[in-house]
Amino acid sequence: MAANTVPDAALQLSSSTTPDISSYLTYIITLAPDIASVIWRYIRFQYPCITIAELEIKEGFVDALRDNVLRKGYLRPSDDNFEDMAQRRSDLKMNASEIRTRSLETASSAWSYIGFHPAIVSDIVAWNREADQYERELLLITEARARERLRRQQNRNLVTSFDGQQTRNVVQTVSPPPLALTRQNRRYTEGSSSLHSLPL
């Protein structure tokens, strides 16, 4: 009888631990999609441009920003950094074209159905990093020109205010005397003339 009680106790122990293991697996399977989603969002935050479609969107945005800077005269040919900015834009366009060419060469692989190819992801990430830096410099140029325009406007406002104050001071200086003083002077003049007209 004693020999039978030991296997029964072991069987009860093993049966009591089995639901715990299965519950852990259930938790892991349930939380796995959420964990994967968080990891994927973090990766996308760190690398927002990993596909050809995203590269083309970024390229179009940078081109539109540069065209706007040139159209408004914020970046002029006489500026010291004009040639450097033009060369960097040309390099970005050339590198983007090469990446698209490599993407077309690998379009027949199974990775094309996923939307990106591991062989060119690193190149797209490096290109996007250069495009971000170029975009920041265009925005810095825009803000610098905007500050210059605001300073000129402030100076014009100060000059206009000063000229207006000077004009008011001049008008007050050369303005005719008040009417009461004019009448008093007239009476004084008439009294003086009447005294001169009396016979000696």
Question: Would you give an account of this structure?
Answer:
With 200 residues, the chain is mostly helical. It folds into two domains: 15-46; 49-158, no CATH class. Helices cover 82% and strands 0% of the residues. It has five helices and no strands. The protein has helices at 2-46, 52-71, 82-105, 118-174, 179-197. Helix 3 runs antiparallel to helix 4 (118-174). The N and C termini lie far apart (169 Å). This is 40S ribosomal protein S6. Keywords: Ribonucleoprotein, Ribosomal protein.
Mean pLDDT across the residues is: 78
Distance, first to last CA: 169 Å
Low-confidence stretches: 193-200
Computed CA radius of gyration, to the nearest angstrom: 43 Å
Which structural class matches the secondary elements?
mainly alpha
Largest sheet: none
Strand content: under 5%
Shape: elongated
Quaternary structure classification: single chain
**What is the number of helices?**
5
Instruction: Provide the domain count.
Output: 2
Q: How do the SSEs run, as a string of H and E? A: HHHHH
Instruction: Report helical residue fraction.
Output: over 70%
Number of strands: 0
Keywords: Ribonucleoprotein, Ribosomal protein
Protein name: 40S ribosomal protein S6
Briefly, what is this?
The protein folds into 2 domains: 32 residues; 110 residues, no CATH class.
Which helices and strands occur, and which strands form pairs?
Layout (H helix, E strand, L loop, with lengths): L1 H45 L5 H20 L10 H24 L12 H57 L4 H19 L3
Helix pairs in contact: 2-3, 2-4, 3-4
